[in-house]
Amino acid sequence: MTQPLRVLVVDDEMSIREVLSDGLESFGYAVVQAGNAADGFDVVKRGGVDLVLSDIEMPGENGLSLLRRIKDHDPDVDVIMVTGLVDFETAVGTIRQGASDYVSKPFNLAEVRIVVERTLEKRRLIRENRDYQQRLESKVAERTRELEESYESTLEAMITALDFKDNETHGHSRRVVEYAVMVAQAMNVGEPDLSWIRRGAILHDVGKIGVSDAILRKPGKLDAAEWEEMKRHPEMGYRMLKHIRFLTPALEIVHCHQERWDGSGYPHGLKGEEIPFGARIFATVDTFDAMTSDRPYRAALSIEAARDEIRRFSGIQFDPKVAEAFLSIEQSVWRDIRERVHRKIDALAEGERIAL
User: Fold this and answer.
1) How high is the pLDDT of residue 137?
2) Mean pLDDT, range 72-96, rounded to an integer
3) pLDDT bucket at 144, cuts 50 / 70 / 90
4) What's the pTM?
């Protein structure tokens, strides 16, 4: 059975309280009484009050003061002011101060009933609308999470596709993602920027889809013409993804990850802080991964030797602050990341072998 709505009547005159209480109870409300503002506020603080009817003129603390205290405590408790003054400005002024409505003495119980029901119905609609809004926001948030998970799965698939296409750098995409996040965290980058750096790192080489396999899989160094085609991949990657609004913040890395601090990079020869921050982080870890990976034409450098190169080219190829953050991270961290990525790749390969 539904509990009746609870109404508090505050008035220093017992006769007024009794008339209002009897009338409200006959309308189906549960009524509580208080003879002054202090006692009335104590009732409100204990909770369970849906509506307050309060006289304005009372000894000690008046009704307007009580109104303000109630609204500060709980804005959702509606207050109807009861005034003995036939003064429109005073009555309207109470609404400006937060009252939901007012009734005038001597009052008509039928009028009181209309005002109370109207006030409670308005509050019901406000609560229903707020609940609906919260449910809608929850559904939108859930749908957004689902979409982001879908995007993440798609990006993971792209990593795998790129690694298979460019077998010389197998595992590169997964490693640089973790490297970039590690350096960004060392530079106190938080969300959502950290996620966009991660996504940009995942997608950085997507433009290589447009580079011929003969160039990507060439066992030796590229000649001048082949190198020019390879240098097109940042621009191609950007053009492929620029119409996907969700990915816009990540495209700075895709577009600018081959720029250099001194302006000698490509595709636009950006210099210093003209280069987007995420791209500056990525350029450092991308080069580190290249140096510490075997190539057919050279053996990988040790992590220590690669760190020395990062230090040597700080302020030339790399943003000095990014290089400093990179060098602040222990060598063992980079080694652990490489080993973890390799184990993951081996597990994926084993799973595919079993599936076949």
Assistant:
1) 87
2) 82
3) confident
4) 0.61
> How many other β-carbons are positioned within 10 Å of the β-carbon of residue 303?
17
Q: Residue 54 gets which letter from DSSP? A: E
Could you give the CA distance from residue 50 to residue 45 in angstroms, rounded to a whole number? 12
Question: Strand, coil or helix: what is 109?
Answer: helix
Contacts of 280 (CB under 8 A, 6+ apart): 261, 318, 319, 322
At residue 179, the 3 state secondary structure works out as helix
Domain 166-355 has CATH 1.10.3210.10: yes
For residue 263, give the nearest of 274, 252, 251 by alpha carbon: 274
CB-facing half-sphere around the CA of 153: CA atoms within 13 A: 6
Q: Which segment of 16-20, 214-218, 274-278, 293-297 scores lowest on mean pLDDT?
A: 293-297
Contact 25, 31 (CB under 8 A): yes
- CATH second-level architecture of 6-135? 3-Layer(aba) Sandwich (3.40)
